[in-house]
Amino acid sequence: MTTTTIAENLAEVKARIAAEATAAGRDPARVRLVAVSKTHPAEVVEQALATGHRLFGENRVQEAAAKWPGLRARYPGVELHLIGPLQSNKAREAIALFDVIQSLDRPKLAEALVRLRDEGLSLPRLLVQVNTGCEPQKAGVLPAEADAFLARCAGEWNLPVAGLMCIPPVEQEPSPHFALLRTIAERHGLSELSMGMSDDYPVAAAFGATMVRVGSAIFGVRG
Length: 223
Ligand SMILES: *Cc1c(COP(=O)(O)O)cnc(C)c1O
Known about the structure:
single chain; alpha/beta; TIM Barrel; 8-stranded parallel beta sheet; 9 helices; 16% strand; globular; binds pyridoxal-5'-phosphate
């Protein structure tokens, strides 16, 4: 893929987000694009950075550690989000690399983050991942357990949660999942909703997403 193509893809996705948000009566500036650069090498990611885009998502700590310190040094102002599952034994490395962790999904990880904070380290912003489709193979707290988990974050752990993230089941209509995520967020006064990927980000933008996470529509199919 050429520089022009990635730049064009980014512009097209941004225009589509703005159009969908506007059509739904939302402020388009309230929907940010997280460009998902997982599996793509630094040279490819640079083509997106060269356009001025600074918000990116990666799903693995190891890959981000190999790729992003160098890119950050050359492109100031990067905001990097962890969008994949985080093992608690990698939490220390993750908080040093990421500005936002979108995949807080269980007590063990919350407790690991609390211990790091107790050491004096500052934590990234946090989103709680909700498994809206109750899929056994997928990470995230179950919808029925989300209220209790969010209450423990706020109370027992004193962890500030900025919002929620979900990945709807691939074979289903995404809108009920987006609506469910929004309902849970509203119940807890949470403002950030990370939902929508290459196939469904326009729907998510209409349903209240404040962040959409788009990979292949920008960078092409992953190898
Ligand atoms: C890979 C990934 C994306 C982007 O997926 P595309 O379909 O390539 O846009 C978004 N969110 C998460 C959690 C991912 O792992």
